Amino acid sequence: MSRGTFTAGQGVTVQLVKAGSTKLRYPAVVASDDGTHAVVRAPWGRTTVRDFGFVRFEPGDVFTEHYWRDRWYAVKEVRAADGTLKGWYCDAARPAGIRSDGIVIEDLELDLWLSADGTTVLRLDEEEFAASGIESHDPVAASMARRAMDELETFARAGGFAELLG
Fold first, then answer.
1. Yes or no: is domain 11-158 CATH 1.20.1070.10?
2. CB contact at 8 A, 25 and 34
């Protein structure tokens, strides 16, 4: 994988990998990249609504996605088509893999949601994490995923991600 940086305005592909298989691939546009922290924007990639109960991802939603080459998580700011902030969806993930044409993210199952008003912080997918077997076949990654969720929850409960996202 490349260690280079992207240029603002550059088109890239984001590839989400789970358990060694590509689960999702979508186009995005680079907003910034300082060599450690890459930020891209992408529309919700489906033509259907995904209702989680606490938030709905809908056609027209825009995700501003923050990926780090040295951190075990990704943070996605979610806005409705009209620009209204819905909240932040965060993934425990291995540090971002950077290629000349895009970003590869290996999702580690654990997720966190922070509502736009900051009143709702939810840790998600503990069952999927346990069922993945990662704690037995890759205990280091499992430990890093749990630490990532703890760090993100600390930010979320202390007023949000402004400091983290800069």
1. no
2. no
